[in-house]
Prior knowledge:
By secondary structure, the chain is of the alpha/beta class. Helices cover 50% and strands 14% of the residues.
Amino acid sequence: MAKVIAFSGIDGSGKSTQLKLVKNSLEQNNRVFVAKIAYSPLNDMGKNKLIDSVLKCRSGLEIIKYYKLLELNECKKYDYILCDRHLMCYLAYAHAYGVNNLNFIRKLLGFVKDPDLTLYFDINVNTALERINERGRKVDKNENFYTLSKAKEGYDDMFSIMDNIERINANKSESEIASNVNNVLHKRKMI
C-alpha cells in the first residue's frame, strides 16, 4: 500500500515547489504518483444562492470521484502518492468561500482516509501574495488578501479535526523549507 503525503497550504506557500523536490528525490528508487485535487467550482461562488448550492454539490461530487479513483486504482500501483492539496485544502478553502460546518463536511466525507502525513506550509498572507505576484502569470481573482486570510483561518481550524499534520514554516527560503521538509519526512519515517 502506498504511503500518502499531502502538501497543503494557501496559494503562494510553496507546496507545489516542495512537492516537486520530494517527488524528484523519491522517484530515484520508488514508484511515485502525484495527485491534485480541484476545488475550482467553489471559485465561482457568490453569484446567487441557487447557483452556489449547485456549485457546492458539483464540488462535492468531484471530491468524491477524486478520492474513490485514488483509493481504488492508484494506491495499489505506487510506493508513494504525493497529493498537491488534499481534503484539508478543500475544507480550508470551503471555509474561505463561506461554507460553514466544516466538521460536518469532514464527517460526511468520512470515507476519505487521512494521509499518512500532511505537510502544512504555514505562511504569512502578505508573503504568499508577494510570491504569487512574482510568478509572472495572471493572478487568479481569488488570490487576494481576504480569501487567503479566510483560507488560512480554515487551515487553523483543521488542526482540531485532522491527524498527522506537521506545520512547516513557509516564510523561509526555498532551501530552508526543503531542509525542514526532509527532516520531517525522516523523523516521521516516511522515507
